[in-house]
Design brief:
3 domains; 20% strand; eight-stranded antiparallel sheet; 405 residues; alpha+beta; Surface presentation of antigens (SPOA); Chemotaxis protein chec; four-stranded antiparallel sheet; single chain
Length: 405
């Protein structure tokens, strides 16, 4: 051999294949190929998305996941960190080779604003931790397998998480975006037909990977899958909205057309010389017509003496409030029909949860007021009066005995 590799041999090495020992010249048969290093396991057309589209989709996913992390934090009460996404094209074999099994697939469909769906993939252990935290645990009860209870809980969690992401997406594109309730399923990948999960998984799709951390309990990869068409529509919508906003903000306001200066009439523009006293003894200006200010004509210089003008202080209308009219209740008529909640509070007490759980029909609760003491009257939650309980035919009533100042 001459020490050089043929193009076929280079392709075989890059694809993880080997050639015959005596190979030279590039005619040796290649062994069966395994999954490609790019996560493919099959041919992936990298031209389906440009680098600009990938960057834009990654930015959209990053903003959405920022809102999702905040929502997930409120559900699990632990710090949630989701790192910057990695966007690439993949297919089903690439997902199978890159993710642990079994795992939970969560399908989300958009119903308003954008048309499409996407799939979230979570590891089984991560789902057990999240659902245990949601149910009041410490996140360590991860024994066993994911069941219907965990699938229902993670569906509700993702409903709120992706709802927050939809709100962020709505803000970006300027239209209302809504989703249908997510559907969670436990998948093992073994002999699995991806078309049963989502039709777009049978071909090439967009794979967005996030590094997700939940306190010290979870440190793994969260995966989000987009159809190519849906990813492109997101890019087009986002790009169109950004372009229109930029154009609207950068468009200069049209300048008003200057009015043509009318030709000076005879005798117009003649400024009489002011008295010498007004000019401080300065010699009077030269008499003659003054040119009108317009295009091609010089404007008067600042500080130049001007003709006599009648200057007087500006007069403003008084806006003082007539307090006597308000004191007489003239304007109170405007709010006479506003309804207010009137509440009569008989008394209060504080009980521990253990006592409250023991409540049953017949339980007697002792209040903080003695018998015969006036009850409190509250209007919209504000304490305004005291009163005594009376009976009016078959209904209770309260007779006001004191107004609180």
């Amino acid at each position: 051999m001459d020490g050089q590799l043929s193009q076929d041999e280079i392709n075989a090495l890059l694809a993880g294949m080997t050639t015959d020992d005596g190979g030279g010249g590039g005619d040796a048969p290649a062994a069966d190929a395994g999954p490609a290093a790019s996560g493919g396991g099959g041919d992936i057309d990298d031209t389906l998305l440009t680098d600009v589209e990938k960057d834009a989709i990654g930015e959209i996913a990053n903003i959405n996941m920022g809102s999702s992390a905040t929502t997930l934090f409120s559900l699990v009460n632990h710090k949630v960190d989701i790192t910057t996404p990695n966007v690439e094209l993949s297919n089903w074999q690439g997902v199978v080779s890159a993710y642990e099994r079994p795992c939970v697939f969560i399908t989300i469909k958009y119903t308003i604003g954008v048309d499409g769906s996407n799939v979230l993939i979570l590891k089984e252990h991560d789902v057990m931790v999240i659902t245990d935290l949601m149910m009041g645990g410490d996140g360590t009860n991860t024994e066993g397998e994911v069941g219907e209870l965990q699938l229902s809980a993670i569906s509700e969690a993702m409903n709120q998480v992706m709802g927050a992401a939809a709100t962020s997406l709505s803000t970006m594109i300027g239209e209302k975006v809504d989703i249908s309730p997510p559907v969670a399923t436990l998948e093992d990948f073994a002999d699995q037909d991806p078309g049963k999960i989502a039709e777009f998984l049978t071909g090439t799709f967009v794979k967005i990977s996030f590094q997700m951390k939940i306190g010290d309990l979870v440190d793994s990869v969260l995966m989000q899958l987009y159809p190519i068409d849906f990813a492109k529509s997101l890019y087009d919508t986002f790009n169109t909205g950004a372009s229109s906003d930029s154009a609207a903000s950068s468009a200069p306001e049209p300048a008003p057309a200057p009015a043509a200066a009318p030709p000076p009439a005879e005798g117009v523009g003649m400024v009489p010389p002011p008295p010498a006293a007004d000019m401080g003894g300065a010699p009077p200006p030269m008499a003659g017509p003054m040119p009108q200010a317009g295009y091609g004509m010089p404007m008067p210089m600042m500080g130049q003496p001007m003709a006599n003008m009648n200057v007087q202080p500006a007069q403003f209308q008084s806006f003082g409030v007539d307090m006597s009219a308000l004191a007489g209740g003239a304007n109170i008529q405007l709010i006479h029909d506003v309804p207010l909640d009137v509440t009569v509070e008989l008394g209060r007490t504080i009980k521990p949860i253990s006592d409250i759980l023991d409540f049953s029909p017949g339980t007697i609760i002792e209040l903080d007021k003695i018998a015969g003491e006036p009850v409190d009257v509250l209007v919209n939650g504000k304490y305004v009066a005291k009163g005594e309980v009376v009976v009016i035919e078959e209904s209770f009533g309260v007779r006001v005995t004191e107004i609180i100042k």
